[in-house]
Specification:
The chain is α+β, with helices and mostly antiparallel strands. The chain contains 6 helices and 9 strands; from the N terminus they run αβββααβαβαβββαβ. The strands form 2 sheets. A 7-stranded mixed sheet has the order 2-1-5-4-3-7-8, with helices on one face.
């Protein structure tokens, strides 16, 4: 009985991790100004959110070792979304908040090589080793997606889609929340749903 109870607790803990249920983290509210941030990309270029006013901005938290991230990159799903949106003028910032020594922490050159090998197309990859940007947004999982409207307000936060699995086969039947939200924004409609539960691996913040 004790073994069975321990096993159930372990399974529950793993499921909570996969669904992004972690400790309490301050998070910005949809409809309110998105938290200002300044981040440096792999080439040393500085990005400041306020400098991007007038453009739609997508934030994508990533960790190359996470099976949920691999699901969306291995299938080409994330790359297609990046290419489709940036072609429409959206600024796509992929953010790596993994602390030094943890899964997903890569050098700038390694990040660039990874993006090239994946044929990925974000506007930039921001290095957030100290977790400042991730903590400001309450990013809990990889991937965790955020959309900021041209007036600087947070319009969407949560999962990339409604299939919280690591199985690529589920992508074709999934409702892509990010693509749906962008369509609603373009049409001048409210984003529904504006908040969903992100799923994936926990962001590997420094302890």
């Amino acid at each position: 009985m004790i073994f069975e109870s321990s096993r159930k607790l372990a399974v529950t803990a793993c499921l909570a991790l996969a669904l992004g249920v972690t400790g309490a983290v301050a998070a910005p509210q949809v409809g309110q100004p998105a938290p200002e941030f300044t981040g440096t990309d792999t080439s040393g270029t500085t990005y400041k959110l306020s400098d991007l006013r007038g453009k739609t901005v997508i934030l994508e938290w990533t960790n190359d070792g996470c099976p949920y991230v691999k699901k969306h990159y291995g299938s080409g799903n994330m790359q297609k979304l990046q290419k489709d949106t940036t072609a429409d003028g959206v600024v796509w910032l992929t953010i790596a908040s993994s602390a030094p020594g943890s899964q997903g922490n890569l050098s700038p050159a390694e990040h660039d090589a990874l993006m090239t090998s994946r044929d990925a197309a974000p506007t930039a990859v921001l290095l957030d080793e100290d977790g400042t940007i991730g903590q400001a947004y309450g990013a809990q999982t990889t991937p965790h997606m955020y959309i900021i409207t041209p007036d600087g307000k947070l319009a969407y936060k949560g999962a990339i889609d409604d299939k919280p699995t690591a199985d690529q086969a589920d992508i074709d039947s999934a409702n892509n929340y990010v693509r749906q939200a962008l369509g609603q924004i373009a049409a001048g409609k409210p984003v529904v749903p504006a908040v969903t539960r992100a799923y994936g691996c926990s962001v590997k913040y420094k302890s």
